[in-house]
Amino acid sequence: MTVPSPAGGGADLDGLILAIARDADRQAFAALFRHFAPRLKSYLARTGLPANAAEELAQETMLAVWRKASYFDPARAGAATWIFTIARNLRIDLLRRERHRSTLDADAESEPVDETSGETLLMTAEREARVRAALSALSEEQAAIVRLSFFQEKPHSAIAQELGIPLGTAKSRVRLALARLRVLLEDLK
Amino acid sequence: MNPRAHPSDETLARFAVGTLPAGPRLVVAAHLEGCACCRRTVRAFEAVGGALVEAEAGLPLAPDAFARTMDRIAREGAGMVHRPAPARPAPGGRPTGLPPGLVLPAALAGCAIGPLRPVAPGVRIGRVRVPGDPKANVMLLDIGAGRGIPDHTHAGLEFTQVLHGAYHDHRGRYAAGDLVEVDGEVDHAPVVDADGPCVCLVAMEGALRFRGLLGVLLRPFV
């Protein structure tokens, strides 16, 4: 799988978020919106959200990016990863509200994983470059399986349907593809 | 002490992309608090998520999407968040009768934990209510020294984070910090070490199936 690096490179996208945090820079936000909003919408649609909900949540995510820009720490995660985790959390909150409309959502702003302080981290740029390398190093078939299953609520049935294979086979293929990816990512640890 | 039993890769990936249901997510979050190794794996899978989003072809948004977002920014003021997020509330009441040395995981903050009720000799269970998902099957299990949980199988995955003490079954021994992930095919009968009680946080994706009387007793809990 070829994972193209963003036009201008990840560091520039990081810079856009930093400019928003520093100067409430609307031009930087416009550029970031152009780059990420369509990608977020197609990612959210891939998770099974209907098109209008994916559209809403993509906008919601970009709004949160504006608001939370001061939390962005390029030493922890690159722009794409940080924005992905915001969209992920908003999606969890949305599904939670749909399941339980009457409950007031007290911790919508909190992250599922607490910030871990004092942990030695690889330089983010290097880590993310290696993640891209790991994805490219997968075989054509395994890359397709990761791409098709990674964001799915029911990865096994999605794969079974997409590739026309039995559920049991889909299960073991997802497991194998993930194990291979894990081995390729092992250097990151 | 480093945990020896960990969630599967698939579970950590589902945690990282947010597709793990609320109950198991809570138990995995409790494990991550004490496992730097799994935290790094989650971080790596999040970066995979970021790279896959970056690689998306993209779907066009409504023509007015950007204008609408800017309107909201203008309407709600700059609205930028500069202060640190407020600390989570303290765990919602600690059930009485837990071992004094036990520290409840921070992941339980905001969850209401019901009183521990005896369901079998030496076995007490408290229902954990997960905010936003009242149907999540999560419970705190307090099992006396040398006691066992009767033979059972699962309809889906079962996630057990050992919070205190240790237990063993036919596959091995598990101590505080370990997360044991068991799927539906496993039929097991865990027994707690003889030298002290064992407290576990347990979540199930599917219903738990006990053989015999305990199944009836546990019905209100699972």
UniProtKB/TrEMBL annotation, chain B:
Gene3D superfamilies: Anti-sigma factor, zinc-finger domain, Jelly Rolls. It comes from Xanthobacter tagetidis. Pfam families: Cupin_7. This is ChrR-like cupin domain-containing protein. Residues 117-203 form the ChrR-like cupin domain. SUPFAM superfamilies: RmlC-like cupins (SSF51182). InterPro entries: Anti-sigma_ChrR, Anti_sigma_zinc_sf, ChrR-like_cupin_dom, RmlC-like_jellyroll, RmlC_Cupin_sf.
